[in-house]
Design a protein that fits this description.
The chain has 379 residues and is of the alpha/beta class. It has three domains: 65 residues, no CATH class; 181 residues, Vaccinia Virus protein VP39 (Rossmann fold); 115 residues, NAD(P)-binding Rossmann-like Domain (Rossmann fold, 3-Layer(aba) Sandwich), CATH 3.40.50.720. Helix content is 27%, strand content 23%. The strands form five sheets. The chain has a seven-stranded mixed beta sheet with strand order 9-8-7-10-11-13-12, with helices on both faces. Strands 17-15-14-18-19 form a five-stranded parallel beta sheet, with no helix packed on it. Strand 7, helix 3 and strand 8 form a beta-alpha-beta unit. Helix 2 packs across helix 3.
């Protein structure tokens, strides 16, 4: 079923070194209505690293029709995500204030909605294979993919994409298409997760079957500058969430850009990430074995799937908690656990909640303790 990435992702070098393997990892990080887990698909999650470029990457790639079998609401639920979209809209407006925008992979159109609240728009067009527009979305949607043959039917001032780059299986070809697609003198804005910081903080949503390579800030800049783009501005959104970039498409320069080899640093980051989660799953198992109370796991997403795959005992978990109503009463793929609203904690005495949701931890912890149940024990 899988597509094997057996060469380094940017230069096709055959110098990959294996770092670790997680056997039988779920291929989809969302929720399903089918309660029969026997039908779920799995693939070995294998991380290799190039010795010459230092880029860690996932070896086994999942076919896109399986990986994105249905939408899992990432980027739409929670205050932090909406703050991200507002901050990115402000970044675009303050940098160039484009009035004609073309967005790749906009899905819900939330970014266009926030941008329209702070600037005048002549047009905002979104290319998206499965559009799900939010209410009052000002954008026009085109159903499709950003493929080699795609051409825009109208002019634009700026091209935009948000948390898309890290999902691309062939980032070099993607940037080559951007170079061809965006006219000289026009702007490119994009946001990517701060993957290096996320990995150093041991977040489980940094690299997976959707984020299949270590897209660092340096690698993003190298790819753009080596394909005729000039960096104007960059800005972090929180210390551990995202990085915004503003580039302008220029004529291709003759100078050769070099990619710094961070092999030793990145290898250490990945191995420490792996060892941390082995120890974390063991520690959490010991903690919940000592407690004679109901135990819940927060996050119907990659957060929970990763902990369970590293060895957290699923049988000790009552259910998965999640704020996304679209996931309630469904099953987290790759598990036998049903998803419920955190509101079920309300009348329980000292319920135990395992929370490992990265940058969203504080937001979720505050919600549970202040709005639902102040006797909850969060570990």
């Amino acid at each position: 079923m899988n597509l094997v990435r057996d060469k380094e992702i940017i230069f096709d070098r055959e110098d990959l070194e294996n770092l670790f393997i997680l056997k039988k990892f779920p291929v989809f990080m969302g929720c399903v209505e089918d309660m029969d887990a026997k039908k779920d698909l799995y693939e070995d999650f294998i991380i290799d690293i190039s010795k010459s470029t230092g880029i860690p990457q996932v070896r086994n790639l999942i076919p896109l029709n399986v990986l994105y079998d249905s939408e899992h609401s990432s980027g739409t639920i929670g205050k932090i995500w909406h703050d991200h979209h507002k901050a990115f809209a402000d970044f675009i407006q303050s940098s160039a204030n484009p009035t004609r925008v073309f967005e790749i992979g906009g899905l819900h159109g939330i970014l266009s909605k926030y941008y329209s609240e702070i600037s005048t728009l002549d047009s905002w067009t979104i290319l998206e294979p499965n559009p799900i527009p939010v209410d009052d979305c000002p954008a026009k949607f085109i159903s499709g993919f950003f493929e080699k043959s795609f051409t825009a039917d109208s002019e634009f001032d700026a091209c935009v994409h948000s948390h898309l780059f890290e999902h691309i299986y062939d980032p070099k070809s993607f940037v080559e298409k951007l170079k061809e697609f965006i006219p000289e003198g026009k702007d490119l804005f994009f946001s990517i997760p701060n993957i290096k910081e996320m990995l150093e903080r041991k977040y489980t949503n940094a690299i997976n079957f959707e984020h299949t390579f270590f897209l660092s800030e340096e690698l993003a800049i190298f790819l753009m500058e080596s394909h005729g783009f000039t960096l104007n501005k960059k800005e972090k959104f929180l210390d551990d969430h995202s990085i915004f970039f503003h580039f302008t498409r220029e004529s291709l320069k003759d100078e050769i850009k070099l990619l710094i080899n961070d092999y030793l640093t990145n290898k250490q980051i990945m191995i420490h990430w792996y060892q941390h989660h082995l120890n974390e799953a063991k520690m959490l198992d010991e903690a919940i074995n000592e407690k004679e109370r109901e135990v819940f796991l927060f996050g119907a997403h990659i957060f929970s799937q990763t902990l369970l795959n590293f060895g957290l005992n699923e049988k000790k978990i009552q259910c998965i908690l999640d704020n996304d109503k679209a996931k309630h009463n469904k099953r987290l793929y790759g598990t036998n656990l049903t998803v419920r609203s955190p509101s079920i904690l309300k009348d329980l005495k000292n319920p135990v909640i395992i929370l490992r949701a990265g940058v969203y931890n504080n937001e979720i912890k505050q919600q549970i303790l202040e709005d639902i149940n102040d006797s909850a024990v969060i570990i």
